[in-house]
Amino acid sequence: MEAGARDPSVEEVMRLARALNTPVGTQPTLREIVTQSVRVVPSDWAAALVAGRITSRQAQLAATTDEALTDVVARIAGAAGTSPGWAAFEQGRTCLVRDLAAEKRYRSYPEQILANTPIRCVLSVPLIGDGKVVGVLTNYSRTTEAFGPSEVERAELLAEVAGIALTSATAEDHSLNLTKALESNRTIGAAIGILVERYRLSGNLAFDVLRACSQDHNRKLVDVAEAFVTTGLLPNEKRYVHQVEGTEGRRRNVLP
Description:
The chain is an alpha+beta fold and 256 residues long. Strands 2-1-5-4-3 form a 5-stranded antiparallel beta sheet, with helices on both faces. A hairpin with a 2-residue loop joins strand 4 and strand 5.
């Protein structure tokens, strides 16, 4: 092989990893990461998560190729207070367990994984975004010694691209959330404007009307506001107006 040339398998990893930039949003990106991971790093299962820190609770942003198995692994790791995934996240480096039966690290984790799952080999790599660890990717195999130097290299390359993709996906989520928040605020503001005009209420009292309706009907405030702006109708509208006006009146009476 010529100097500086990359192994064709590495090029394959990079080609497959580019697919991670296709999904929009963190959760879809995580799902694509684990899908690609079991193919790129030949393994039986894969799981990935994004979090500020690892705890005994399952991360909200996570994906797996086998949810039932991952739930068992998460409970075992939580009880042990450590695992290859935890170590990879906290130390920012690859953690490889070639044979769980011979593993002495990670407290009760190896013994419990052997007793409760078909997993025999574990490879965890940190996901790096903006120069810091943002998550971890773990591959599992039912065969010992399943991950050699080539598989580790593939996993690390995939994790490198995955970290970049997750950084972009997180920014997309943030932008989307800001857009939704602005749209919600505009909708609520429009509903408040209708009530102010219709009943000559203050802005605060008009908001209280919407909130009372939201609570009574167990609906999100923005959903109540959107329906009101669209139809011009609010369930029990006058009752809520009288209710908040009465509350305001009582509040004034007790003020010095």
